[in-house]
């Protein structure tokens, strides 16, 4: 009879939270210091192991987040399970599969605990922000990617690499698809152009502990796609807001600018908001009417969202 595998070989199960907010028109992610990364501490996501006392995965996640950041979570959805062998650098998992169940959480920013901090997510992905035009780092990254393609072992492999670069980074006139966040990070990782893969600088963004930047990339791509068919953006908005504030938050999340009148027409056609009786003069011009999310829209149709066109920057 075959002896059963020892318990020690069972995969470790962890929980990780990608907690996103939008404050002052800037998309933010909640980070915590993580020990055990080289000589010092690295930035990472709130995380911890699944414990026997946790009745469910989600309640375990909420407990870790409150313990590490003081942040109470509202909207939460399971994002992905990361389980590749040797996910932790330096063989810290002993070659075992270390599973991490990652969650996406959308909140309104609150003051975090002393050891945690809100950071712009473009700190980790500077090439994803097209609101001020083509990001400066993209030209340098493009040159390094082309050099990586040229260094391929065969002409066929070099062509495949160039095709992937064109698809993910919008080269050769194919356009920029803002939802391909994870694919771009994965390609940069494979090419050795991110600090987690040994790059000598942070041209492609600030490093994060373990594979937490891969989790963040997965969450950003999910959110950028989801705002087009679900009203999740309102989880990030205050109870009352102006249409201008709503547009700036959507632009911050997607990383591209939107035409003002087209955006307002789209919001009106979808019936996502309704006027309140209040106005605000904080816009700097004429007093603006404050709006609120129409929750009835959730009952009126199965996929209410902003229906934004696929954003493509030239």
TrEMBL record:
<dbReference type="InterPro" id="IPR015797">
    <property type="entry name" value="NUDIX_hydrolase-like_dom_sf"/>
</dbReference>
<protein>
    <submittedName>
        <fullName>Membrane protein</fullName>
    </submittedName>
</protein>
<dbReference type="InterPro" id="IPR036388">
    <property type="entry name" value="WH-like_DNA-bd_sf"/>
</dbReference>
<dbReference type="InterPro" id="IPR054105">
    <property type="entry name" value="WHD_NrtR"/>
</dbReference>
<dbReference type="InterPro" id="IPR036390">
    <property type="entry name" value="WH_DNA-bd_sf"/>
</dbReference>
<dbReference type="InterPro" id="IPR011213">
    <property type="entry name" value="NMN_biosyn"/>
</dbReference>
<feature type="domain" description="NrtR DNA-binding winged helix">
    <location>
        <begin position="233"/>
        <end position="293"/>
    </location>
</feature>
<dbReference type="Pfam" id="PF21906">
    <property type="entry name" value="WHD_NrtR"/>
</dbReference>
């Amino acid at each position: 009879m075959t002896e059963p595998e020892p318990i020690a070989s069972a995969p470790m199960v962890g929980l990780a939270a990608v907690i996103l907010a939008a404050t002052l028109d800037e998309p933010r992610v909640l980070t915590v210091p993580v020990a055990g990364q080289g000589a010092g501490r690295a930035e990472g996501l709130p995380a911890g192991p699944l414990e026997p006392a946790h009745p469910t995965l989600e309640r375990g996640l909420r407990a870790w987040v409150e313990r590490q950041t003081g942040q109470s979570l509202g909207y939460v959805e399971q994002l992905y399970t990361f389980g590749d062998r040797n996910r932790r650098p330096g063989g810290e998992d002993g070659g075992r599969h270390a599973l991490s169940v990652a969650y996406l959480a959308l909140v309104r920013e609150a003051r975090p605990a002393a050891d945690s901090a809100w950071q712009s997510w473009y700190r980790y992905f500077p090439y994803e922000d097209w609101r001020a035009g083509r990001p400066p780092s993209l030209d340098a990254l493009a040159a390094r990617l082309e050099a990586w393609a040229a260094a391929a072992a065969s002409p066929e492999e070099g062509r495949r690499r160039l095709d992937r670069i064109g698809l993910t980074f919008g080269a050769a006139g194919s356009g920029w698809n803002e939802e391909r966040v994870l694919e771009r990070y994965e390609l940069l990782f494979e090419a050795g152009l991110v600090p987690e893969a040994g790059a000598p600088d942070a041209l492609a963004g600030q490093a994060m502990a373990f594979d937490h930047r891969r989790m963040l990339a997965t969450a950003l791509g999910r959110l950028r796609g989801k705002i087009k068919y679900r009203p999740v953006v309102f989880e990030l908005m205050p109870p009352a807001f102006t249409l201008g504030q709503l547009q700036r938050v959507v632009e911050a999340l997607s990383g591209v600018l939107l035409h003002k009148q087209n955006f307002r027409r789209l919001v009106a056609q979808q019936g996502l908001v309704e006027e309140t009786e209040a106005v605000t003069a904080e816009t700097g011009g004429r007093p603006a009417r404050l709006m609120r999310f129409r929750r009835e829209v959730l009952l009126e149709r199965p996929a209410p969202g902003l229906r934004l066109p696929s954003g493509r920057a030239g």
